[in-house]
Amino acid sequence: MTLKIERTLRSEHLRQVRSEVEGADQPVVMDLEEVDLVDVDGVRFLNECESTGISILHCSPYIKEWMLREQGR
User: Fold this and answer.
1) pTM score of the predicted model
2) 59: nearest Cα among 51, 70, 67
3) pLDDT by residue (tens digit) across 18-38?
């Protein structure tokens, strides 16, 4: 299953995205090609997803850098 997230990934969206991820029967891949705005909860969620084996595709460099910084905390 591929989840395509468009434009924003913020705390108010996480409940819905978590529900989609948890309900998926197949391996999940997140496509962030069009995402240009995240908040700290969104970054932490993406790190959580990666730690459980979910692939993150087309992540912008600034989001990836923020994810790495959060992992170091």
Assistant:
1) 0.89
2) 67
3) 998 989 888 899 999 999 899
